[in-house]
Amino acid sequence: MTDAAVVEDEIEPKSSKLPLILGLVFLLVGGGGGFFAAWSGLILGGESEVVEVEAPKEEGAPEVVFVPLDPITVSLPQSSAQDHLIFRAHLEVGAQHVSDVEAVLPRVIDVLNGYLRAIDAQDITNPSALTRLRAQMLRRVQVVTSPEQVKDLLIMEFVLN
Questions:
Q1: Domain residue spans of the chain
Q2: pTM over 0.85
Q3: Contact between 67 and 102 (Cβ < 8 Å)
């Protein structure tokens, strides 16, 4: 009787792997369905459809013209790591003021050249300095022209070498 008890303990019925396989299949199907629902926007809001509407053009709305400035090359002090600053920009001007601004371009170049020569080399190398420099240069250009004539200064090239 002891041999029969030992044989019964050793022979246990094999458990079925069907629940494990079904669980994995349902997991994959559910995950794929959830991904598709989130990706297509059925759940979590998704991206709203962007409709581009062309604004009606007002009669007399000012057109904008970009007036290029001649490139300016500034020699930096010997104490700085770089030798030169190359600066190129465009002025955003209302279409009705283009001829007025072009008439004073030499004065604008002179003001910018003087400002760029007067700033410190450390001010130029600071990564956040470009925004401040741009604002300072725009203010000086608007003093030479007028705030109504020049709307913005767009820096096209600012290279230290």
A1: 16-53, 64-160
A2: no
A3: yes
CATH domain 64-160 topology:
Tetrahydropterin Synthase; Chain A (3.30.479)
Could you tell me the two tokens for 112?
């910018």
Could you tell me which of 155, 106, 109 has the C-alpha nearest to residue 135? 155
105-139: pLDDT as tens digits: 999 999 999 999 888 877 787 778 888 999 999 99
